[in-house]
Design goal:
Layout (H helix, E strand, L loop, with lengths): L24 H16 L6 H12 L4 E4 L6 H11 E2 L2 E5 L6 H5 E6 L4 E6 L6 E5 L6 H4 L3 H6 L1 E4 L2 E4 L5 E6 L12 H6 L2 E3 L6 H11 L12 E2 H12 L5 H16 L3 E3 L3 H17 L7 H12 L4 E2 L1 H5 L4 H11 L8
Parallel strand pairs: 1-9, 1-10, 2-11, 3-6, 6-9
Antiparallel strand pairs: 4-5, 7-8, 12-13
Helix pairs in contact: 1-2, 2-11, 10-11, 11-12, 12-14
Length: about 350
């Protein structure tokens, strides 16, 4: 037995305990496997990207897809939405998009002589935000409350968003023409950032075969529904994280704040997101407890986009992910004990 498994406090899940309401970890594996299979049938050769998208979904987070145009960012987001029998809304972010287009607006109804709220595009289980960094910072900020608190406040009235709720936003690199950099507060609300990357030669050849005549997205059928996904989310919450494992997460995040190579380290929200993503990664690996390997596997997607390197680090052509890789090697990993 290791120090990552013993001394579970009351109320924490054990291997013999049933998962919380709605789903068991076995069901999480079964449904997520169907979900990954359906998504991989559309997204050629990107199994790690698909797995990370499912991880963020089960961890109650939001996903930022950053890469050059044409590599399938929007297709990935639309594919996840199509695989779930749930409400899906797409928002095309443009410079003239207004905050009310996202959150909704109160309109005066002359028949009843009162204002009525008309929900915006954010009121859906899966929100696909296409090219989010082409909208103004004012419009981008309309997402802050909904992404953090799962609600929208308009004219003093608060409206709760449906569950599960995930924002999958795409953006082009900031050096692309017509883009605005995402504010730090906005980036921090995305649980993870991933890049699609170019496909391999074999995957690109398969893409010509599958996508050359018609999009396989058109024939894709849902493999699960919103209620089942919400049950899976609740099951993932019960995945056990030992005190030593939690301390490891805290130590890793603290290292980003003290690193001389970084001007801005990770926030306390990042600490929580790292734990949630690690739990989801463990569940997708068939375990009811988190290991350091889970933390290390999700650390770069969860933390790197929140970090700001110093000028000297950038001049040395080192990225935040490079710095984070060094910190992962230097941070002490909890050792198993017998």
């Amino acid at each position: 037995m290791s120090d990552l498994e013993h001394d579970r406090p009351p109320g924490e899940a054990t291997r013999d305990d049933p998962a919380p309401r709605g789903a068991s970890l076995d069901q999480v594996l079964q449904v997520s496997s169907r979900l990954a299979g359906a998504m991989n049938s559309v997204i050629e050769g990107k199994q790690p990207v698909v797995r990370m998208a499912i991880t963020v979904l089960l961890a109650e987070g939001h996903l930022l897809l950053e890469d050059v145009p044409g590599v399938g960012k929007t297709l990935l987001a639309k594919t996840l939405g199509r695989c779930i029998d749930a409400s899906v809304r797409r928002v095309q972010f443009t410079p003239d998009l207004l905050p009310s287009d996202i959150t909704g607006v109160s309109v005066y109804n002359q028949d009843v002589r009162a204002f009525e709220f008309r929900p915006g595009a954010i009121f859906a289980h899966v929100v696909v935000g296409d090219e989010i960094n082409r909208a103004s910072p004012k419009t981008q900020s309309a997402l802050l409350e909904s992404m953090e608190e799962g609600q929208v406040t308009v004219d003093g009235t608060t409206y709760t968003l449906p569950r599960p709720f995930i924002v999958m936003a795409t953006q082009n690199p900031i050096e692309m023409e017509g883009t605005y950099p995402l504010p730090e507060a906005q980036r921090d609300r995305f649980m993870a950032r991933i890049s699609m990357g170019y496909p391999s030669a074999r995957s690109e050849l398969d893409m010509l075969e599958l996508h050359g005549g018609a999009s396989p997205l058109d024939a894709l059928q849902p493999v699960t529904d919103a209620a089942t996904v919400q049950g899976m989310v609740e099951a993932v919450r019960g995945v056990y994280a030992a005190p030593a494992l939690r301390q490891y997460i805290v130590d890793l995040v603290a290292a980003t704040r003290s690193s001389p190579a970084l001007r801005l380290g990770a926030s306390p929200r990042a600490t929580l997101h790292l734990l949630r993503a690690s739990r989801a990664h463990a569940a997708l690996s068939g375990r009811d407890h988190v290991l350091p390997d889970d933390v290390q596997q999700v650390a770069v997607p969860v933390l790197a986009h929140r970090l700001i390197p110093t000028g000297e680090t950038q001049m040395a052509r080192r990225t935040a992910a490079d710095v984070l890789g060094d910190l992962l090697q230097r941070t002490r990993v909890p050792a198993p004990t017998r």
